[in-house]
Amino acid sequence: xxxxxxxxxxxxxxxxxxxxxxxxxxxxxxxxxxxxxxxxxxxxxxxxxxxxxxxxxxxxxxxxxxxxxxxxxxxxxxxxxxxxxxxxxxxxxxxxxxxxxxxxxxxxxxxxxxxxxxxxxxxxxxxxxxxxxxxxxxxxxxxxxxxxxxxxxxxxxxxxxxxxxxxxxxxxxxxxxxxxxxxxxxxxxxxxxxxxxxxxxxxxxxxxxxxxxxxxxxxxxxxxxxxxxxxxxxxxxxxxxxxxxxxx
Length: 248
Hints:
By secondary structure, this protein is an all-alpha fold. It has helices at 2-14, 18-31, 38-50, 56-80, 82-86, 93-108, 111-116, 122-132, 137-165, 170-247. Its main location: membrane.
């Protein structure tokens, strides 16, 4: 069974149709993420590293072109359906993804496109939010090109390394490539989480300092008010004391 599967895969990888197929898969995944498009990239990279076919550069170009086309389509969808996007329940899976993309856009700007490429459900949520918030299309294209290039290079090279390490056993090469890709994605997510946690701690400290300053201001105001009241009381009492002295 596996021998037949490997033979079929080998024939597909030798076919010129592999490039448009990768482009179409990357495009569809950017709009309707049915399955991770990194898997075909890693698989193509494995065969490129073990047999030399398909061509590594053409894989990158095909994946990048398809992903950019899909991202721009998602951007246009978000731009034309901003009202519907806002109506998505915030506690749903899509709502949480969109809320996360908005926070990412607010804190990272255009770099959110690059980061979103490596987050599950992040890429489509990010591109749709960019469109809904009418982010400038030219800047969107620039940052999207950076994100797509990093994403395509990441998936393809992980497969290429696995294929080159196990030239005679594509299955082991595929397993290694997938493992490296998962490990890299986990490290990226860990770094992102640590940064978010550190920023969250910073915001708590700032809020605490602001609260302390506010309490200090309130104490100062209370002290000032008390001093004013005492001064006013003394000013009222002094004439009364003078009258008593005059009578005596």
